[in-house]
Amino acid sequence: MTSSIAVLLPCYNEEAAIAQTVAGFRAALPDATIYVYDNNSRDRTVEVARAAGAIVRTERIQGKGNVVRRMFADVDADIYVMADGDATYDSASAPALVARVLDEQLDMVVGARVTQADAAYRRGHKMGNALLTGMLARLFGRSFTDILSGYRVFSRRFVKSFPVLSSGFEIETEISVHALELKMPVAEIETSYFARPEGSESKLSTYSDGFRILRTIFQLYRIERPVLFFGSIGAALAGIAVILAVPLIITYMHTRLVPRFPTAVLVTGLMILASLNLFAGLILDTVVRGRREVRRLAYLAHRAPGGEDRRA
Fold first, then answer.
1. pLDDT in tens, 75-123
2. Alpha-carbon gap, residue 46 to 39, rounded angstroms
3. Structure confidence by residue, pLDDT tens digits, 155-179
4. Are the CB atoms for 69 and 87 separated by under 8 Å?
5. Phi and psi angles of residue 103, each rounded to the nearest 5 degrees, phi first
6. Among 18, 56, 19, CA closest to 38
7. Residue 162 β-bridge partners
8. Could you tell me if 79 and 154 are in contact, meaning their C-beta atoms sit under 8 angstroms apart?
């Protein structure tokens, strides 16, 4: 059975690069349907993409995460190839990424970016990517080598079980955590990464988007690991309480008096807060487990890539 392939290209002011991007994926995947989702471009992105042969649709809510949410909801296919419309990703690598998904029945293959051109990355992006990737690995136990790559191939069951919550460029981080939390079979393939064509400008803000991604990592850690998150806060509060309580206990054992009564009240309050954090983590862990089971069931409702449809 032949798998249908959809190429998804979110775009914002990519008049200078979108025709080249569409042509590249058309040559690499001649049987694929190419969708360009425009996100309120102020240039001729829509006209150029349509002239290049892409199916053009529009998402009015600004932000890449909002565009991805719309694309994943609207498009039906067996395999989804997602890239940016700026001609920086190597479209010639797409067949290898798709083949890896089908041959090994994977749910996501990430195109890990490799470049020899200094102009391909903006200043600070390489270091920021390495720091964020390392942090994700430390918090979630395993990770990818390039969590911020926008070049990814997905199975249908990944796309249709992924509740997109992000609104901006932090979407790649959320995608990575979704795969890690559901323990999906995934892989990475190194792909070339090119500088933007002349006239095309990056929409990324190195520091503001970096902080948004960092905030997203911590939010997802709080949501997906509530026992560890709130337990760590509780343990810290309990540790402070014990340190403050030790002198009071020693004094009481010698004098049977509590001379620093405000400190004793503070210790009691800290221990109460520590207990509340612990129980909040335990309760939220039950909620998260239920949410994870629902997502897993939604994931299992779709056949594996390249496999037979169990619903037939």
1. 999 999 999 999 999 999 999 999 999 999 999 999 998 875 554 555 5
2. 10
3. 999 999 998 888 888 898 899 989 9
4. no
5. -65, -35
6. 56
7. none
8. yes
With b for 16 or more beta-carbon neighbours within 10 A and e for fewer, the 35-45 pattern comes to bbbbbebeeeb
Element at 108 (helix H, strand E)? strand 108-114
Q: Which helix (H) or strand (E) segment is 36 a member of? A: strand 33-38
Q: What is the pTM of this model?
A: 0.81
Residues in the chain: 312
Can you state the angle between helices 125-140 and 206-224, rounded to 10 degrees?
Answer: 0
Round to whole Å and give the CA distance between 112 and 150: 9
Q: Which amino acid is at 248?
A: L
Concatenated DSSP letters of 157-221: HHHTT------STTHHHHHHHHHHHTT--EEEEEEEB-PPPTT------HHHHHHHHHHHHHHHH
Residues whose CB is less than 8 angstroms from the CB of residue 236 and which lie 6 or more positions away in sequence, other chains included: none
DSSP designation for 3: P
Give the span between the Cα atoms of 270 and 67, in whole angstroms. 44
